[in-house]
Design goal:
Layout lengths: L18 H8 L3 H8 L7 H14 L5 H8 L4 E6 L5 H16 L3 E6 L4 H12 L5 E4 L12 H5 L4 E4 L9 E5 L1 H14 L5 E5 L5 H16 L9 E3 L5 H12 L7 E4 L2 H13 L9 E3 L6 H4 L6 E3 L2 H17 L9 E4 L2 E3 L9
Parallel strand pairs: 1-2, 1-3, 3-4, 4-5, 5-11, 6-7, 6-8, 8-9
Antiparallel strand pairs: 10-12
Helix pairs in contact: 1-2, 2-3, 5-13, 8-9, 10-11
Protein name: LacI family transcriptional regulator
InterPro entries: HTH_LacI, LacI/GalR-like_sensor, Lambda_DNA-bd_dom_sf, Peripla_BP_I
Pfam families: LacI, Peripla_BP_3
């Protein structure tokens, strides 16, 4: 954080105009003033001209120490994602990169492959790469967070998205997974489903545990029995794991008349397995997925799903990260931004009640 001190000498020398003064005068943020003074491409020509004219008018002289430090800035943000081949994460990255580019920042992307050890190694690399901010989605294996503590000591802001540390005050961009899963399950119930299965994500991961709890809460609200045999646990919600769990449901004497899947890959698996066995979708078994992957709009029948706002999540993560980097005079201990999801109803759940 920079502190711009105005020194008052005994002979009443006029205080020097600071960035903060310019910001107040023009009703702009200090970071916008700073970028305009440096002819930053992300600031409009009109704003740049306005700021520079006002700086000259007020006799603004850049602090040489602060100026020297700014020149050493890398304008680089590091991103740690579990897997870039998952559509959700690729869309998040796109949101991050689009917003960062507009603000004149570059991004460097690393994948943990959902491995804690690899995630730890990446944090060491980033600590030596002079990045100014780091955006992270935790690996499935991550249950301790010591490897992130050095970023705080280095003054490098961290922003987590989707999978965030539990029990810690951190900056994060999330959705309400419990509420979203409740909505998805409730939709199946309103369509007449009474025996609803769930293909669940890894329960060591908070978001998938929340989706499981949301599913159970909807059953409880509508007084439907919870049957553990109708829950299929997976490690990483892969298409192959979806086939295994859907095939297990198919072997039961009483078939589920609804299936809520914790992602769209497993929803596709369930749809294909049941249709291949001659089960009519959605009339005999309705299916709802999660995440609104492109495949949900391609496969027939189209799959009802939850839009988890992945692109917006990335853009918000970049926005918060850059705000933490640039607004040195703003003190932010921790902030959680929760994005509202939406249920997208398609043919896979439109059964006749």
């Amino acid at each position: 954080m920079y502190i711009y001190a105005n020194v008052c000498y005994s002979f009443m020398k006029k205080s020097r105009t600071t960035l903060k003064d310019l910001a107040k005068e023009l009703n702009l943020s200090a970071s916008t003033i700073s970028r305009a003074l440096g002819n930053h491409p992300g600031i409009s020509e009109t704003t740049t001209k306005l700021v520079q004219q006002k700086a000259e008018e007020l006799g603004f002289i850049p602090n040489s120490i602060a100026s020297s430090f700014r020149k050493k800035k890398t304008r680089s943000i590091g991103i740690i994602v579990p897997r870039i081949d998952i559509y959700f994460h690729s869309l998040v990255i796109s949101g991050i990169e689009d917003f960062a580019y507009k603000e004149g920042y570059n991004v460097t992307i690393f994948q943990s492959k959902d491995l804690l050890k690899r995630e730890q190694e990446i944090t060491k690399i980033l600590q030596n790469k002079m990045v100014e901010g780091v955006i992270v989605c935790l690996s499935i294996e991550t249950d301790k967070y010591d490897h992130f503590k050095k970023f705080k000591r280095l003054g490098i802001p961290l922003v987590f998205y989707d999978r965030v540390p539990t029990g810690l005050d951190v900056n994060s961009i999330v959705i309400n997974d419990f509420e979203s899963a409740f909505t998805a399950t409730e939709h199946l119930i309103t369509k007449g489903c009474k025996r609803i299965a769930h293909i669940a994500g890894n329960q060591s991961t908070a978001i998938f545990k929340s989706r499981f709890e949301g599913y159970k809460a909807a059953l409880k609200k509508y007084k439907l029995n919870f049957d553990a045999n109708l829950v299929g646990q997976t490690h990483n919600l892969s298409y192959e794991e979806g086939i295994i769990q859907a095939s297990r449901f198919l072997k039961q004497t009483d078939l589920p008349d609804g299936i809520f899947c914790a992602n769209d890959y497993t929803a596709v698996s369930a749809l294909q397995v049941f249709m291949k066995a001659g089960v009519k979708i959605p009339d005999e078994t309705a299916i709802v997925g999660f995440s609104n992957y492109p495949i949900s709009r391609v496969i027939e029948p189209h799959i009802t799903t939850i839009n988890d706002r992945a692109y917006e999540m990335g853009a918000e993560a970049a926005k918060l990260s850059i705000r933490l980097i640039e607004d040195e005079e703003e003190s932010i201990k921790s902030e959680t931004i929760s994005l509202k999801t939406e249920l997208i109803v398609r043919e896979s759940s439109l059964k006749n009640c």
